[in-house]
Amino acid sequence: MQPSGRRLFPFAVVAVGTPLLGVLLARRRFVVITVAGASMEPAYRSGDRVLVRRLSRSGRTGIERGGVVVATWRPPSDDPPGEPAGTHGGPRRPTGEPLGARGWVIKRVVAGPGDPVPEGLGPALTAEAGKPVPRERFVVMGDNAAHSHDSRHTGYVEGGDILGVVIRRLERRW
């Protein structure tokens, strides 16, 4: 006859391992970002926490016009890298580090692959107005245009530079 501890061991492993595996998988799929700055007001205000669904490396599915994304910020080729205008402190990484410090921005998608580039977007896309957005490229803007550094200044955002899609705002802790 086996001691009862040996018979319970497999059940204990499953009971502890299953929730742990679930948490690890969720962390790979989702990230919580704290917004700082005025570029996405009024939809997202400084201090808002948002849940972001990371995109798979194999495809950029789930990015829709009107949706909000977190993406790598790339300065225009003739400008030195720096923090985007209107995002002082930037959105924050899960570690609390400002996203802008690593070149991340939170913006709304105004056009995706195949959509016409909107008119009047500023210097970076003036020549592209009316033409279809190229494959794997997106046009993004902040909701508060006066305080946003976006596709009007830097041009298209590449699909591979998009970390994920904002799912929803989380309740404030205070």
TrEMBL record:
Topological type in the membrane: Single-pass type II membrane protein
The name this protein goes by in its record: signal peptidase I
Keyword Transcription (UniProt): no
Domain Peptidase S26: 20-117, 128-166
Source organism (scientific name): Streptomyces atratus
Enzyme class at the top of the EC tree: hydrolase
GO cellular component terms, semicolon-separated: plasma membrane
Catalytic activity, reaction form: Cleavage of hydrophobic, N-terminal signal or leader sequences from secreted and periplasmic proteins
One of the GO biological process terms: signal peptide processing
Chief location bin: membrane
EC number assigned by the record: 3.4.21.89
Positions annotated as active site in the UniProt record: 39, 107
Keyword terms: Hydrolase
